[in-house]
Automatic annotation (TrEMBL):
Cross-referenced InterPro entries: Chalcone/stilbene_synt_N, Polyketide_synthase_type-III, Thiolase-like
Protein name: Chalcone/stilbene synthase N-terminal domain-containing protein
GO molecular function, one term: acyltransferase activity, transferring groups other than amino-acyl groups
Pfam families, per the entry: Chal_sti_synt_N
Biological process per Gene Ontology, one example term: polyketide biosynthetic process
Source organism phylogeny: unclassified sequences, metagenomes, ecological metagenomes
Swiss-Prot/TrEMBL keywords: Acyltransferase, Transferase
Positions of the Chalcone/stilbene synthase N-terminal domain: 57-198
Amino acid sequence: MLPKLISLGYAVPEQAVTQREVFDTLKYPKPFWKLYRDSGIEKRHFWVPLSRIRQLSFQEQQEEYMRGAVELSKKAALGCLDGRHPEAIKCLVFASCTGFAPGPTIGHFLAKELGLSRDTYHTNIASQGCEAGFPGIKRAFDFTSTTKEASLVVTCELASCSYFPELDGKPDPENHYELLRSNAIFADAATAGLVGYDDDPRHPYII
């Protein structure tokens, strides 16, 4: 029998901001408002207060990332577990690319916060961008297939901790306006997925 995706959870920061608020804060020239307006996004949730986005040093960004990633990941994981005992989790996979945590990793801090067993296996996936959830699920699938034990996959991105407003609000055409486009769409959230076995027909097999 193949492992199943049994439960999901997510968490977002309390602060929600509109595209207009972000655009005005970053002080881009008016012609670029069309990119924000036509993005299809009405609001985004940010961990870092919008009023501080332009003020944080790189060190301060990473400190905020550590705090936010642990807090939001814990909320997402608890929502996913939905009352299940944390010690049933034998593998924790954590994926992120918007901050640096050389060690102990966010996954290790999270395991302590959740009360996972000390013999829990850890996998930390970094710098794979938007696709990181897929290798995370694959790692959980492999572990659960082999051991028949439950795995928890957690992803967390805090774009507000990696914002780099461009000088004087002038987009750089040399990188194809990559920073301008990133600043227009990315936000902050954490998600969690429980991989394991059960008899509930509503839960999909991972194939």
